[in-house]
Design goal:
The chain is mostly helical. Helix content is 72%, strand content 0%.
């Protein structure tokens, strides 16, 4: 029957190794390419535009602007080897100018995207020679040092970036990237230990060190003092920074989930309440609170918080996914499992379907509600669509068997 998915709080942020960066606003008129930058085209649209650009290059093989746009298209399609070759040709034919810091930065990113780490350093340094304050190229250099495990050098780059743009949390951006890619997060502890040595007054560095210690720990409850040492230092340096309160709240939530000790949820909510006194309208705070309530099984409160975050303007995929999963869990546990107010369960799951119409689990939950209401034909349509989306899911297959059996018996 339907699955209950517990979604932990994971921040998804841009990963600079793979984000296409359009080098400049060129005079060459490709209006469709501009649409690529501002919209969300499908692969076919991009490929058609690449064909058009290649026609331009046939007529003018030294058109460096066309090579730049060609590389952009290949980047978008994640055809990094082709993007690299286009970048090289762009450099070959481009006149030396101020934008060379961007051009060489894009070349470095192409090498990084292909995993050709050692070859990336030279264009990174060239980019920074033309413009020592190019933030993207400093990010590439930071990424280079992280990948090479040169953590002292990486720590210095963190400090440089933080001085160039005080509004951004580069520490957490890099951590989020490595969280998804590193099997052993203990290396991240080493990295951020170096970061706080280089920049001891950075509350951002101390916060991420605490997160890294937490996430690399096999037993958070046992190591809570080490985690809180860094997070408390971050609070000491900046007691008004809401993400630190969220990090602490999440720490206690993770312990509650792991140990099944409900008292830790109270600790988690206590830190959320402290943050709300600072920022009662903060969308990310509402999102964090929603996850705590979701794990506590308080679905109405979870939905309230997720709706506030999503409809308040936080349209990140994680927020949408969390909201639809809260709807799904409420519909399944509070209505399908109990058999109470199944019509209300349908209303709830329909909200999830409206936001995410192609989620197999959500569709199977609606099928099960309809099945329990003896609306077998409708249930069959939804379970068929669910199985089309997730053909190897054994529980959905089981649902299909049960619904087909009910349909046959209803015809007798």
């Amino acid at each position: 029957m339907s699955r209950i998915i517990i979604v932990f709080f994971v921040v998804c942020l841009p990963i600079y190794l793979n984000v296409p960066i359009f080098a400049d606003e060129y005079s060459l008129d490709f209006s469709s390419i501009k649409e690529l930058i501002t919209g969300q085209p499908d692969d076919r649209t991009i490929r058609d535009n690449i064909d058009n650009i290649e026609d331009v290059i046939k007529e003018d093989p030294k058109n460096y602007e066309a090579y730049s746009m060609l590389a952009f298209g290949y980047d978008y399609l994640e055809l990094y080897a082709k993007a690299l070759e286009a970048r090289k040709l762009e450099i070959k034919y481009a006149p030396e100018k101020e934008a060379w810091d961007i051009i060489y930065g894009n070349l470095a990113r192409a090498y990084l995207s292909l995993g050709r780490i050692d070859e990336a350093k030279k264009p990174i340094l060239k980019s920074l020679k033309y413009n020592p304050e190019n933030i993207i190229s400093h990010i590439h250099l930071l990424s280079f040092y992280v990948l090479k495990k040169q953590y002292k050098e990486a720590a210095s780059e963190f400090k440089i970036l933080s001085e160039l743009d005080k509004s951004r949390d580069f520490y957490h951006e890099i951590y989020a990237w490595r969280f998804d890619n590193d099997k052993d997060l203990k290396d991240m502890v080493t990295l951020f230990e170096e970061a706080v040595k280089i920049n001891p007054d950075s509350y951002l560095a101390h916060r991420v060190l605490g997160i890294a210690v937490r996430d690399s720990s096999g037993d958070i409850e046992k190591n809570i003092s080490a985690v809180m040492k860094s997070l408390n230092k971050a609070l000491e340096l900046n007691p008004k920074y809401v993400p630190t309160y969220i990090a602490i709240a999440n720490t206690y939530m993770y312990i509650a989930v792991a140990t099944k000790k409900k008292a830790y949820y109270n600790d988690s909510l206590r830190w959320i309440d402290k943050a709300y006194k600072l920022a009662p309208k903060d969308l990310k705070l509402a999102y964090a609170a929603g996850h705590i309530y979701l794990n506590m099984g308080q679905y109405n409160k979870a939905i309230e918080k997720f709706e506030y975050a999503y409809y308040g303007g936080d349209k990140y995929e994680n927020v949408l996914q969390s909201l639809t999963q809260a709807y799904n869990q409420k519909a399944y546990i509070s209505h399908y499992k109990t058999g109470i107010n199944l019509n209300k369960g349908l209303e709830t799951i329909d909200k999830a379907i409206m936001l995410n119409p192609n989620d197999a689990i959500i569709l199977s939950t609606k099928a099960e509600l309809l099945y329990k209401m003896k609306r077998f034909k409708e249930a069959y349509e939804y379970i068929k669509k669910s199985l089309e989306l997730d053909p190897n899911n054994p529980e959905v297959k089981e649902d299909l068997v049960n619904i087909e059996k009910a349909l046959k018996e209803a015809k007798k």
